[in-house]
Amino acid sequence: MKVSIIGTGYVGLVTGACLAEKGHQILCVDKDPTKVGKINQGISPIFEEGLEEILKKNIGKTLAATTDLRQAILESEITLIAVGTPFDGAQIDLTQVKEVSAQIGSVLKGKAGYHAVVVKSTVVPGTTDEVVLPILEEASRKKAGSVFGVGMNPEFLTEGQAVADFMNPDRIVLGANDEKCMLLLEQLYQAFDGTPKMKTNSKTAEMIKYASNAMLATQISFANEIGNLCSALGGVDIVDVMKGVHLSNYLRPTASDGCRIQAPISSFLEAGCGFGGSCLPKDVKALIAHGEKVGSPMPLLSAVVETNLRQPREVIRLLKKHMTTLKDVHIAILGLSFKPDTDDIRESPAIPIVKELLSQKAILKAHDPVANHEVRKLFPSHQLTLCETLEEAITSVDAVVLVTRWGQFEEVPELLARVNPQAIFVDGRRMLEKHRFVHYEGIGL
Ligand code: NAD
Questions:
Q1: What is the DSSP letter of 301?
Q2: What separation in Å is there between the alpha carbon of 122 and the centre of ligand 1?
Q3: Number of domains the chain contains
Q4: How do 439-442 and 424-427 pair as beta strands?
């Protein structure tokens, strides 16, 4: 199929590269010419395992990038909208979605033949039918349903494993309001034959995405709240508590061969310094705001957000157990991305932690295996020294704070024992064992 994808961020680019790999003809559109130039050279503008490999393999063959949205719409039969939908502090900001919808509509005005427009961005329930569809109709002067179709196909990929997730999805949710659009969506995902496909309307597809993310966020804040209670009580460690909780059949079911299988949801039930990223925080806040707007407040989810906002402060509290002031204290931050295997720092708990430590006049160094360049955009070098190596970061500091669960940090206990054994180690992810450090503090301990 000939497919155009508008927006070449994490979702648009991964979708484009993976669908090209599956044999479709893909035209990726972005308004940022630098991104487009890089993609056309086979260079990924973002760090994502395996992405550059499939970009290089398919670029110039089944995959191309352009800034020319008009040409891309004219040359394709289906368009996926994958632009950003940030939270503006009060509600979901649909500026990019609206802008792109108007642009697509004006091209459809002069295009013969059926064209499907499918929203892949995460948008609050009702957006595709009540915002995107009317804009398309107005700009194209055509009626949806016969000459063009409108649909919704949420994306569930996880940053850091986005290519693997897209290639082996757990589900594919297809929302469409007319048969032709649904048919095109089914063709688009034909190669994913072993994956459960749920066909529904656009509003349900939108809600499935939000309900999924809100459920994950709730697990994390739940574990953090229990962890904080453990800290307050003393003599009880969240790691042991969760070990016991995870032994339940709900989280570790028994397979037919008698083996216990760990449900992946378990990884969301660990205490830490909070969730971040471009999705969970903004999606939960957008859903709460949408609930308010339609007269259905969501107190549970509001508490999930509140707990998460407080969580980075736990790290500061743990540091302060060892020193009355953080002024002029040398501290190393390990991990800046919101999770391992990505350079995405959007809403990373590292950001409020760095800001708070700076406001208390600590002297900071940091190391992240891939996200240093992103952090430099937020903090100038006189505020935060970025270290190329782990060893450089943890040498000559009073304390080390682990924020991101990068696999590379497994070597911290040995390295710290060698170069700086007396440093206070604060484990913001409960990743490393207490007995391997001279001075250890951990969330929920
Ligand atoms: P992003 O901000 O990384 O990328 C958006 C891209 O759209 C940018 O490259 C931007 O230049 C481009 N763009 C904006 N306006 C444009 C226009 N008028 N014409 C052409 N290009 C334009 O966003 P993202 O992280 O890829 O997320 C996209 C959507 O997918 C969001 O709604 C997000 O919530 C959702 N989502 C994200 C993830 C994730 O892990 N990042 C996962 C699932 C769903």
A1: H
A2: 9
A3: 3
A4: parallel
